[in-house]
């Protein structure tokens, strides 16, 4: 990370207008109780992906709060990361074939890292499966070892899960992102929801001119109501279902649909999905299919802010960060009642849930024809995200997690 990038990171003080002074004070009070503790985070990459994105904010925040916090990554070669990629897919339930030698190589690289890494810290906070076997070092370093699981391991390939679990259960605690992502373990388990950063390029306030510039760049009519879904082109995000719902709405009123997203390099099906979507979209000039390159944060921000209704018609969903982002921007959301969306969209309170194409079309039409109601839902959605899914709440949860490792017995004996 160069100096400029470090300087560009917002300080906690900058969140005060959003979360208020008392929430910031609370963070300081909690952090003071940990000021004699050193924290070491370990994951497998400094850049790319949600885990690195969160750590890039968390580590400076914890240091700013007076807790000496470091971040290291394990080193591995292509072979190691091919194996961990397969682990990742298998933990998500994908069928993968493994040879014994792959498990052995995984352990060998973890061992090599444990010998070569500079370990110092009281709380060793290990993220995801790649460095999980570093726990073998627990008798030599650290007071508390925590394993943070950022992925959904609820329906894993049993062979890989049993292998990982043997190491996980040697930790003091495991932390999951949602109740339905977890597996029962013999150790303490914590729940820490994901979050978005309201000051990141994807979520910060941007000017009307910047929004219009993005709309113009993609040739979108500024006067026609916009229905938007931002998602990777994946069957599970059901872009075809969104088009069908849109066609129903458009019979009743003029409107346009934007389907924006990238194709994932690790998903061979995504090109096929995009092709099908384009074929349908070609027949209708009111459908805009935008293939976004990675790092299109400002564009996504602008499209979400320009939208009249944001849709997330997923068939299956993880947490659904696109929903969090849209709610934060005060948008009325129509989303399927699946996965983490249920934690975010409370039907007819913070948005509308749907269970079918017809249901989605009905909800979209209701919102487009009732601007006051849409506004009210959007305001509620914004408040819900502010209360539950901002990075400052994530930070507070981490502080409480760390404290709970030390204050547990005292509380029992009090
Ligand atoms: N996103 C992106 N580019 C795209 C599509 C999505 O940057 O082409 C972002 C989106 O704004 C959100 C995240 O990627 O922050 C997707 O997270 P989500 O939980 O909605 O779905 P996932 O893709 O992880 O299944």
What features would you describe in this structure?
Residues 216-382 form the Glycosyl transferase family domain. InterPro entries: Glyco_trans_1, Trehalose_Metab_GTase, TreT_GT1. This is Glycosyl transferase family 1. It holds the Pfam family Glycos_transf_1. With 414 residues, the chain is of the alpha/beta class. It folds into 2 domains: 3-195 and 390-404, Rossmann fold (3-Layer(aba) Sandwich), CATH 3.40.50.2000; 208-388, Rossmann fold, CATH 3.40.50. It has 16 helices and 12 strands. The strands form 2 sheets. It has a 6-stranded parallel β-sheet with strand order 2-1-3-4-5-6, with helices on one face. Strands 9-8-7-10-11-12 form a 6-stranded parallel β-sheet, with helices on both faces. Helix 12 (321-328) links the parallel strand 10 and strand 11 (333-336). The radius of gyration is 23 Å and the shape is globular. It binds uridine-5'-diphosphate (UDP).
List keywords for this structure.
414 residues, alpha/beta, Rossmann fold, 2 domains, six-stranded parallel β-sheet, 16 helices, 46% helix, binds uridine-5'-diphosphate, carbohydrate metabolism, glycosyltransferase activity
Biggest sheet details: 6 strands, parallel
Overall average residue pLDDT? 93
Helix content: 40-55%
Number of separate strands: 12
Distance between the ends = 45 Å
pLDDT under 50 segments (min length 5)? 1-7
Quick one: CATH class of the largest domain?
Alpha Beta
Domain Trehalose synthase N-terminal: 41-183
Keywords: Carbohydrate metabolism, Glucose metabolism, Glycosyltransferase, Transferase
GO biological process, one term: glucose metabolic process
Family: Belongs to the glycosyltransferase group 1 family. Glycosyltransferase 4 subfamily.
């Amino acid at each position: 990370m160069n100096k400029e990038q470090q300087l560009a990171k917002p300080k906690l003080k900058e969140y005060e207008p959003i979360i208020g002074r008392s929430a910031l004070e609370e963070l300081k009070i909690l952090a003071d109780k940990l000021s004699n503790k050193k924290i070491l985070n370990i994951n497998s990459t400094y850049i790319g992906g949600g885990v690195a994105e969160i750590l890039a904010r968390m580590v400076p925040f914890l240091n700013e709060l007076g807790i000496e916090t470091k971040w290291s990554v394990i080193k591995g070669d292509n072979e190691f990361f091919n194996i961990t990629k397969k682990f990742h897919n298998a933990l998500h339930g994908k069928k993968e074939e493994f040879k014994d030698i792959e498990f052995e190589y995984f352990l060998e690289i973890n061992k090599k890292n444990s010998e070569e890494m500079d370990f110092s810290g009281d709380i060793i906070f290990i993220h995801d499966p790649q460095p999980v076997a570093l726990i073998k070092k627990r008798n030599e370093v650290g007071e508390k070892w925590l394993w943070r699981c950022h992925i959904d391991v609820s329906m894993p390939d049993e062979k890989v899960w049993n292998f990982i679990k043997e190491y996980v259960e040697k930790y003091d605690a495991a932390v999951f992102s949602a109740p339905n992502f977890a597996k029962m373990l013999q150790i303490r388990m914590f729940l820490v929801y994901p979050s978005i950063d309201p000051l990141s390029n994807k979520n910060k306030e941007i000017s009307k001119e910047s929004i219009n510039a993005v709309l113009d760049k993609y040739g979108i009519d500024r006067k026609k109501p916009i229905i938007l879904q931002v998602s990777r082109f994946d069957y599970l995000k059901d872009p075809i279902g969104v088009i069908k719902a849109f066609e129903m709405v458009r019979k009743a009123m003029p409107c346009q649909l934007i389907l924006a997203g990238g194709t994932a390099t690790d998903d061979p099906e995504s090109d096929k999905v995009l092709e099908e979507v384009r074929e349908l979209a070609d027949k209708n000039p009111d459908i805009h299919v935008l293939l976004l390159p990675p790092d299109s944060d400002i564009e996504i921000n602008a499209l979400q802010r320009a939208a009249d209704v944001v849709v997330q018609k997923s068939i299956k969903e993880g947490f659904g960060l696109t929903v969090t982002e849209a709610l934060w921007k005060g948008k009325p959301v129509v989303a399927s009642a699946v996965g983490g969306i249920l934690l975010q969209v409370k039907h007819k309170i913070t948005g509308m849930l749907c269970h079918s194409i017809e249901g989605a079309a009905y909800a979209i039409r209701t919102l487009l024809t009732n601007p006051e109601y849409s506004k009210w839902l959007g305001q509620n959605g914004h408040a819900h995200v502010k209360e539950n899914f901002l990075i400052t709440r994530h930070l507070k949860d981490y502080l409480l997690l760390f404290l709970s490792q030390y204050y547990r017995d005292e509380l029992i004996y009090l």
